[in-house]
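chain below, 311 aa
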Amino acid sequence: IVYSEVYVNYRGQETLYGAGSGIIISKDGYIITNAHVAENDYYTVTKLVVNVNTTDPNNGTSVSTAYEADLLGSDTDTDLAVLKIKPDSDLPAAALGDSDKLSLGDDVVVIGNPLGLETSVSKGVVSGLNRQVYDDNSISAIQTDTAINSGNSGGGLFNMNGELIGIVNAKSSSSDAEGLGFAIPINDAIKVAQDLLENGYVTGRPYMGITYLAVTDAQTAAQLNVNAYGVYVVDVVQGGPADKAGLKTGDRIVSIDGTEIAQKDDLGTLIQQHAAGDTLSITVAREGQMQTVSLTLGEKNAQTQQAQKNS
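prediction:
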């Protein structure tokens, strides 16, 4: 487990903005972490520093070696990123487990750097599997009651054989919640990491080429000047699948392949169940008339994944 520091350009100065964890997955210095650890939504990241710790488990003392890291790929939908450092010698890499073999109640350990306390260990159990806790429904998470705090993001969830079975990436921030942490299953994370390394983006992800908005209240309806609740197309990417199919700004998406679309989650969930190349029958309401178009989903590439988060 490594301790990652993120430096940004803040008012013209290189400034330490945040820190998190990461996991060495190969002896030559490939590291997997969270996208929200490696990137920044507000400032330009100028430098990523990875501190590799060698910790004595008997007394907790550690020696840390700092390396500047390159960001090789990042995917915000799954909150995963891959870094690369150039170590002086072979590094100890995590042994990968099989997250598909987990069961409720299995003992697990989280290792990370909560609040900057390097190589901290906490223990708990698998509390839930296949949790849909993310807005885009792109991944199903492992739920655990293991103590997780700020700085644990990107760290490892391990089974009792010392095998990596998850990448820690979230905990409930509700004041009413306690012991609600989540991790990305390692079987899913490795597939994403391989895609990022080989292609620079996650392949096969369906792409409509629209930005859409769910109208669920009178105020939003008035702002859009529409008289019915539902999911509306607010922008169409020129030359994209929706544009080629004939969708237009202002269309209300009524149904897809006969399934009613009433809110944003309906559309997002349905599209995630398809792959690039699938053809959909989309019925829209336009100027008081119902129209049905045939749309063939495209594939999000590195550019469209960055630009079209809501498509």
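Helices lie at 35-38, 186-199, 218-224, 241-245, 264-272, 302-307. The longest helix spans residues 186-199.
thats it, cya
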